[in-house]
Write a structure and sequence with these properties.
With 172 residues, the protein is mainly alpha-helical. It has one domain: Up-down Bundle (Four Helix Bundle (Hemerythrin (Met), subunit A)). It is 65% helix and 6% strand. Strand 1 and strand 2 form a beta hairpin. The protein starts with a helix and ends with a strand.
């Protein structure tokens, strides 16, 4: 690009700054699925399982044992927090970009469900609370059922087939 064109574009950008746009995809693609939110919530539950199962080194433990414990704990917490945020992100996308007023007529509790998921996602990031992680997963499963219902798709609960155990909400 030559200098004159580049300079002209800079002037135009200053006179009329372009708007910043952000979306699930910029097309929009119309592809939404609560599956990623469920997997993220299952990961949060699994990290709590691993944290709970981690054996704390005794007072006479050597440095290598203490370091291994600290390393595992930090990694589990980091992944827990990352996936709690991912869960919130995926739910926000569906809530903001997919759901329409007619969906809310059939599911008037949807705003409360989403609010609860977002609050639980924050709680599991701020704490090490396995019960809150379980609540997050249950709330996301209810959200998934509501989502699929708006598409007229029956759901079933089946084994998650993940190390965490439990169930996933799947289209029937």
């Amino acid at each position: 690009m030559n200098t004159l064109v580049r300079s002209s574009l800079r002037v135009l950008d200053r006179l009329s700054p372009p708007q910043k746009v952000s979306a699930h995809c910029d097309i929009p693609c119309g592809i939404y699925d609560p599956g990623m939110a469920q997997i993220a919530a299952q990961t949060v539950v699994r990290m709590h399982q691993l944290i709970d199962g981690l054996e704390r080194p005794g007072p006479d433990a050597d440095d290598a044992t203490r370091n291994a414990y600290a390393n595992s704990m930090l990694r589990y917490i980091s992944v827990k927090e990352e996936h709690a945020e991912l869960c919130k992100h995926e739910v926000r996308i569906i809530w903001a970009d997919y759901f329409k007023p007619e969906h809310l007529e059939d599911h008037p509790e949807l705003h409360t469900k989403v609010w609860n998921i977002l609050k639980l996602g924050s709680k599991v990031r701020q704490t090490v609370d396995a019960a809150a992680a379980d609540e997050l997963l249950a709330a996301v499963q209810q959200f998934a059922e509501a989502f699929w219902a708006t598409k007229g798709v029956a759901t079933r609960r089946g084994p998650s087939n993940q190390a965490v155990g439990g169930e996933s909400v799947l289209p029937a």
